[in-house]
Amino acid sequence: MEQNIIVRVANSGDTHYAQTITDEMEASAKARGTGIAKRSPDYVAQKMTEGKAVIALLPDGTWVGFCYIEAWGHDEFVANSGLIVAPVFRKSGVAKLIKRTIFNLSREKYPKAKIFGLTTGLAVMKINSELGYEPVTYSELTDDEEFWAGCKSCVNYDILMSKDRKNCMCTAMLYDPADHYTPEETTQEFNKHSKLWERFMKIKQSRLLSFFKRKESSGSSGKPKSLFHYFFHL
């Protein structure tokens, strides 16, 4: 990673980056062929003003990366959302630094909250594991309606709803401050089974797409079965 990248808590002076950030979020999701809960520049700017976001910049002001905090269920749950890095700085290690900074900020602002994330990427799963997150089923996440409403702008929202919000393309991960393994333990576990997780995610996404297409064509819910049924609620 370039040593001159600055990663810090965002503030009201950074709001002019909001449009650039949301444009890149949308472009990145389209390139991956997966969805995200779309956020407006005003929403991102608000997070900056509230001190609930982390931004990465070069000394000359070039935008590098971003992530923000959302609290749900009367602050019982916190999500570190919208992690995005400018294409030229990807694979530089800055994403890991942003994730660690936003994680520490979340622990500082919401020390008792469970911190969770939804991701379609194995690289983000690896970073989360290094922070102490564990893979979980959707039932362990917040039931706050406002959180799930935020998924409406995701291209996979129909799949989420067809599964009664029990599953979707994303993999859920959770850090519980009251009951968790050490980062060393979760990192070791992820590294040990990373290839299996990669297969899980590919099979899960393939089966969900097949399930949804069958449901659309037949008008029935279907009941596909697989070895992954228990964990993925297929």
Characteristics of this structure?
single chain; 7-stranded mixed beta sheet; disordered C terminus; 234 residues; alpha+beta; 7 strands
Written description of the protein model:
With 234 residues, this protein is of the alpha+beta class. It has one domain: Gcn5-related N-acetyltransferase (GNAT) (Aminopeptidase, 3-Layer(aba) Sandwich). It is built from 8 helices and 7 strands, in the order βααβββαβαβααβαα. A 7-stranded mixed beta sheet has the order 1-2-3-4-5-7-6, sandwiched between helices. A hairpin with a 5-residue loop joins strand 2 and strand 3. The protein is globular and about 50 Å long. The C terminus is likely disordered.
Quick description:
The protein is an alpha+beta fold and 234 residues long. The protein has helices spanning 18-32, 41-49, 94-109, 122-131, 145-149, 157-162, 183-218, 229-232, and strands at residues 6-9, 53-57, 63-72, 77-85, 114-119, 134-136, 171-175.
Largest sheet: 7 strands, mixed
CATH class: Alpha Beta
Helix content: 40-55%
Secondary structure: number of strands: 7
Using only CA atoms, what is the Rg?
Answer: 18 Å
Mean pLDDT: 84
Structural class determined from secondary elements = alpha+beta
Strand order of the largest sheet: 1-2-3-4-5-7-6
CATH architecture: 3-Layer(aba) Sandwich
Order of helices and strands: EHHEEEHEHEHHEHH
- Please, how many helices? 8
Q: CATH homologous superfamily - what is it? A: Gcn5-related N-acetyltransferase (GNAT)
Q: Would you identify the regions where 5 or more consecutive residues have pLDDT less than 50?
A: 220-234
**What is the global morphology?**
globular
Protein name: N-acetyltransferase domain-containing protein
